[in-house]
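Much of our argument rests on the idea that a fold can be written as discrete symbols. Part of our work consisted of pairing the sequence of a single chain with a tokenised description of its backbone. We regard such an encoding as a compact summary of how the chain folds. The amino acid sequence and the backbone structure tokens for this protein are reproduced below.
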Amino acid sequence: MQLKIRRIPLDTLRENVAVLASNCAALRPEAFQAFKRLEIVHDGHSIIASLDICHDLSVVGPEEIGLAEPAFRRMGLPEGTSVTIAPARRPQSLEYVRTKIIGETLNAHQIEAIIRDIVGYRYSDMEIAAFLVACAGFLTTGELLELTRAMAGAGNTLAWSSPMVVDKHCIGGIPGNRTSMVVVPIVAAHGLTIPKTSSRAITSPAGTADTMEVLARVDLTIEEMRTVVGECNGCLVWGGHVNLSPADDILIGVERPLNLDTREQMVASIMSKKMAAGSTHLVIDIPVGPTAKVRDAHEAMRLRKLFEYVADQVGLHVDVMVTDGAQPVGRGIGPVLEARDVMAVLNNEAHAPTDLREKSLRLAGRIIEGDPAMRGGGGYARARELLDSGEAARRMHRIIDTQGHAPPGPPLGALTTDVLSPADGVVASIDCFRIAQLARLAGAPLDRGAGLDLLKRVGDQVEAGEPLYRIYSAGQSHFDFAIEAARETNGYALGGLSVNGAGK
């Protein structure tokens, strides 16, 4: 059955969606309900797409198949091209998912087949969720290792001429924790190769790629990335654009709504991307705090051991650092505000956040310690020397120049209000999850100038009516959402008591 492609200007996010007319010439209307997914084939290339039926012939005609934006992009064909359609065959690997659901252990071949079909968009979100839930119930260390290997091998892999390729990664959950943007120029200025690929925000107010994009291009090709690393020793780019471990991005998109974030899946996600990126040495930051992803030292130790096990098996040197995750890092929460903090640290400005500076120096120092040319114990001092001398700032500007300057940056949101303390006291705690949620309600990261500017931190004294933080929004609806949410619970506590009330 052949139909001509028609592009449907509809963004269905990750999912492939095909649209047929209710009077489609290739299939009888009564056959539409016999299956839910189509295989679309042209010259040996195929995709699987969910099927929708349209009764408006102005959208798609009887001789056409409409493809929503993701499906149209993945087919890579011009409108009007004839393609063959057929009911999608059930992937064989779904039998392996059933095997896992009933509690059996999967082998390397079975896991590789599942990941290959997920990357090929042969699974629906429901089928991916079934696999993830089964793995969340029980995953052996052997399965974890094979899952990591399968994910790393499912997309592009990078190789570098340098014998030592370093990287750092934070497991996330702490707003404002933009240490990578300080660490990369320090380490690159020292002379180590650090091709940093970072993610965009999924549930946070900003990812490293979102914040770096305020300053420079991040959607580089692999060849452009190689050029930047060749000239600067490092880069800060969006990993999604270079297709490293694409299975991870798909799995995360299903995990988040289900609130699935097991230790094993986290380790497979992080390690697969670092393997694909060609890293040889990796420092991992595990923040521990009451509202962080990892809540106590025991949980951090178990997670560290999983990282070390996989690293030993795949030949990657891993150094795990457990850090303070009791409160946000820096002051700004949101792309523009976080970029401001990063540049203040690199430029050694007097008002630069000391916690962001200190944590970045510790992480950079640990990476530099791995340099065989460094004397033991000298990593931190070397990192501080490069930052204090301005060499790190110069290297950051060189990276920005080589990656390409971003267009003139968006201003901070024009709509602002201060959230005030209702009483005198001392800030006892700050809820990282709530602060991140409020910044997203304000419009971050889509509105880069939206977010929160923290004016008080844990241990600071406050008086009644004094601002705790400032909300920035670019649109009235987001502004109203954030204010209303801050009135309910604003994330600050005085002396263990919740501080409520959004001022002004």
Remarks:
- Residues 331 and 454 are 5 Å apart (CA to CA).
